[in-house]
Design brief:
The complex is a heterodimer.
Chain A: H1 2-16, H2 25-32, E1 35-39, E2 48-49, E3 55-56, H3 58-71, E4 77-81, H4 87-92, E5 98-99, H5 107-112, E6 115-117, E7 122-124, E8 126-131, E9 145-150, H6 154-165, E10 170-175, H7 178-186, E11 192-196, H8 197-204, E12 213-215, E13 223-225, E14 228-230, H9 234-252, H10 260-263, H11 269-275, H12 279-282, H13 288-295, H14 299-306
Parallel strand pairs in A: 1-4, 1-5, 9-10, 9-11
Antiparallel strand pairs in A: 2-3, 6-14, 7-13, 8-11, 8-12
Chain B: H1 19-51, H2 82-115, H3 120-134, H4 138-149, E1 160-161, E2 167-169, E3 172-175, E4 177-180, H5 184-212, H6 218-236, E5 241-244, E6 247-249, E7 252-254, E8 257-259, H7 261-287, H8 291-299, H9 304-334, H10 346-358, H11 361-390
Antiparallel strand pairs in B: 1-2, 2-3, 3-8, 4-5, 6-7
Helix pairs in contact in B: 2-3, 2-7, 2-10, 3-7, 4-7, 5-6, 7-9, 8-9, 9-11, 10-11
Classes of the chains: A alpha/beta, B alpha+beta.
The structure holds glutathione.
Amino acid sequence: MSKITSTLLLSSALALAANTVSADTLDSVKSKGFVQCGVSTGLPGFSNADKSGNWKGLDVDVCRAVAAATLGDASKVKFTPLTAKERFTALQSGEIDMLSRNTTWTLTRDASLGLNFAGVNYYDGQGFMVKKNLGVKSALELDGAAVCIQSGTTTELNLADYFRENGMKYKAITYDTSDATVKGFEAGRCDVLTSDQSQLYALRIKLKDPKSAIVLPEVISKEPLGPVVRQGDDKWFNIVKWSLFAMVNAEEMGVTSKNVDSMKNSKNPAIARLMGGQGEKLGLSDDWSYNIIKQVGNYGESFERNVGMGSPLKISRGLNALWKKGGLQYAPPIR
Amino acid sequence: MSEPDSGLKPSKPAFWNDPKVRALFFQVLLIVALGYFLMTIVDNTLENMRSRGITTGFAFLDEPAGFGILQSLIPYTEANTYGRTFVVGLLNTLLVSGLGIVLATIVGFIMGVARLSHNWLIAKLAALYIETFRNVPLLLQIFFWYFAVLGALPSVRQSLDLGLGIRFNNRGLYLPEPIPENGFSIVLWMVLIGFVVSRFVKRWARKRQDATGQPFPVFLTTLGLTFGLPLIAFLILGSPLHWEFPELKGFNFKGGMTIIPELLALLLALTIYTGTFIAETVRAGINSVSHGQTEAALALGLTRVQTLRLVIIPQAMRVIIPPLTSQYLNLTKNSSLATAVGYPDLVAVFMGTTLNQTGQAVEITAMTMAVYLTISLTISFFMNWYNKHVALIER
Ligand SMILES: N[C@@H](CCC(=O)N[C@@H](CS)C(=O)NCC(=O)O)C(=O)O
């Protein structure tokens, strides 16, 4: 069981490591020649391996962006599929260099796990999916329902809060993998499957008959999802943070994977800065952001390709539109 | 004749040459070294966790948990503490292992004996059962029972009606719950009294049989006393008990007792899987008793059942108990596969959800390991005691 392995790894790392040095992740990535990235075990649109074993998705693109920035090649990523329960120990123990797996930024995780959140690549909120034939129209009709959830998630806590707040009862059937959760829902073990809304859409297309289920309108929580790194390696923290920011800034300035080469000579000083000259401060080469945009694309391209209209999920930008378009995606300036 | 006193007494060696002192010295040294090593590890771990910004300590046990648990043997709500989630998980582990051990033992003994049966069909069926279920990985069996068998049951609204108010659907087995009324405790007392009295009867019957050779139907008397006595009391008191039946309300049945499918699936899989190993142990045990014993017993006029019960099994037990112990330990440890189907055992609740919400992997893993160690040692201890009890007393 990989949970046990990572816990053992963590314990031995903690027990034996000399206690002053904290490893330099960038150095180790450069000498390995790839980024080891923790992703989900399979969530269409976010991180999912296709038939030939290629990982694709919005979260995967963050890993690829970091690989492009540090190694100049977006394909130099190795993926570690992790369930919700396994993810933090895998990161703490050094099994992975970064975690990009629909992970909610919360105070407890940020402050007590020895981790840092490097930004938000998807603003989400928790929702409910029910079988259509139950005839339920609102989450407030769910008193007494059996609810399937995945363990080790913020979902478990929000669910308890929501039902308590509304004076309703529920039975939580808690599985440790998303596959079992979906199967339990399909087999009728529960009336409701709850998770972040984006994941509900992703899991729904995994159902045998996706049309048999609907997602209820209520959103009961804030789920800012983003990449995570270990505390104590600020250089690496900065690299992951700014790789994501570069993608968002590129979209804002209209730089795409298609026009990036022509933009290299742009007269616009902000674009010129985005295209080069800032790498050294991050400990990277000057073409770090060019490589990201050229090989992975800007945030908008990644969104449309993986979860937006160019994908089976067909999620609209909503909260994830740029701040200029009424959304929340806002990256600090590159200067 | 007296030895000439040479003045050479067998002198005591210097104390540093005394083997006893030396042995003690090295043992103490080893313990000190080991203790120092462990302390360094613990110390280093704590220091490293602090420097990496990971919270340490057991303060989290007093914080509110904030998540729901599917099945709890003690009252539990989201407002209870993480410490209580530990107890809830532990009790669920004990429940499924305890039931599993009892059921697997029953299945194992029946199948082990059946495989040696003279009836061809029974023997072959038992062999088929053992060979099939012993060779399929347990996790697969758990999934099979959970998703393929129990998952295929009808939905709530089309529940199977098993009579007597028992309903069965893909959400579980719904049983009427007995609700005791005033005076029911008297009935329970009668059970105890009946049981104690029947122990005395057994002793008396034994003495009499030793003295006169006259047998006495001890088993039937015991049955009559432990069940008959309470039954009479129950009727005299005017049936101080009523049943609460499960009723369909909203999404599901309410009232009565529910056995969740997660528990059923896990229990079925553990019982059937471990049962095969116990059956083989039992077969080996019985085979270890020489056939001459059977012939002798039959020649003395004992029936086949009597031979099995009075001659073979008691001797076979000595061979069966030690491997049986390890099967019990295996079953207990295997019960942690619960997490795969969402049965809220210690590993699923405490090492799963609680660990994730608090992030205190080292503390929680240590506590969980300590629990399994304690359970294992308790089972071993008990089985060793029992083994001594049945072991051959050399005369
Ligand atoms: N955002 C939440 C929930 C994340 C989560 O694990 N969601 C499940 C939905 S069922 C999932 O993505 N599972 C995929 C997997 O385990 O591979 C969190 O960070 O706790």
